[in-house]
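Standup notes, structure subgroup. Blocker cleared on the pyridoxal-5'-phosphate input:
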Amino acid sequence: MGQLAVHGGLPIRGNKPWPPWPETDRDTEAAVLGALRSGRWAISWPSLGAPALERQFAQRFAEYCDSRFCVPVDHGSSALTVALQALGVGPGDEVVAPVQTWVASASAVLRLGALPVLVDVDPETGCLTSQAVRDALSERTRAIIVVHLGSTIADLDGLVDAAASGGVPLIEDCAQAHGARLRGRAVGSWGTVGAFSFQNGKVLASGEGGAVVMADPALYHTAQQLRADSRAYRSDRPTPAGEMEIVEIGEAMGVNYCLSEIQAAILLDQLPRLDGQHERRERFAGKLEPGLASLGDFGPVPVPAGTDRRSIYEYGIRFRPGTFGDAPVDRVAEALEAELGRAVYPPDVPLYRSPLFRPETTPRYRQVWRDVARKRAIGRDYPSAESFRSTTLLIHHSALLGDDEDVADVLAALEKVRDRAEEL
Ligand SMILES: *Cc1c(COP(=O)(O)O)cnc(C)c1O
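Run returned:
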């Protein structure tokens, strides 16, 4: 094998394109055009006689998540905010969350004037552990946020127990885990509330979008109002054409976090495709993983016992420390990216040192972010998050919609960069 592509050598990957994301076809186009031409682009607009597309999607997505209710929102970030707010989190409260996650899991807490207490994670999966949660619980803890990261599921048994022993609700941030299932039940239905994102890159996408799912009718009633300026769907009778489908309630003052009807049309088209995509990605992983094992040094991010199905959002390849000599993971990722002609990247920088997590830059957050609170939030060491980040490489799920040739290219790139690591 020749020089590394990152140094100008011939890349492993030729001109073959990687699979596109998102996947759309004529049906998607028809769905979007239908919504467009209907003239009803918002749930806060007179009914056409049939339930809003947003409401139809909510029902299907609730079923998909083994949940009784679903409230769609405009972003995953809003989903977390609505979840926390519906559970009564506010100023003076603390919410325990993992340090290894997208910044929204923590900024949602700050938006409510509460303090995110960021704790270390499992070094193999990057997910919250029940021990770290128990160590962080205090008188002020009002909720726990668990993130099912990348391609795995957090230790839900342990975390449900830890939440119960602390007497606080568990919020599952499922933005990376739509459709993952553990012992016969979907993620999002294990905690009190599940929060999802439908941003462009997620496994279920509408450009921007999100949803909360829950079993409790009172929480549902509140969450609806929190996302539609204190309004909720009328439940007294079907809405005749020309009348408003949402009505003023005013028991929980909200803002406008509504998903548009155009986005709901896309989601109604995309949801039925998701299980097939899960299968295709699992087939890819099923070919990749024996290859990783025979290369030695590499393996997948583990899943907990009892996993019926993982949802592969970012496929994590773990490597033994020293596999690439002294090269930092960012440099290794860069070299792989050059070989493969597609993004390969390490996990997010842990929030305590992330350039995206800077509460001191926003007046509203600065109020919470005083010295003592800051120390409480991030004043600890995070060796396991750092270890996870420095020995994990991620590939976006769209690559796993590829074929056997694509599997072979990933393996060949790993082998080439490993064997020439001293050149990095
Ligand atoms: C994507 C993501 C979010 C936020 O979703 P948006 O729709 O981008 O607001 C929250 N948490 C996690 C873990 C995510 O990956």
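Discussed briefly. The chain has a mean pLDDT of 97.
Next: hand off to the docking folks.
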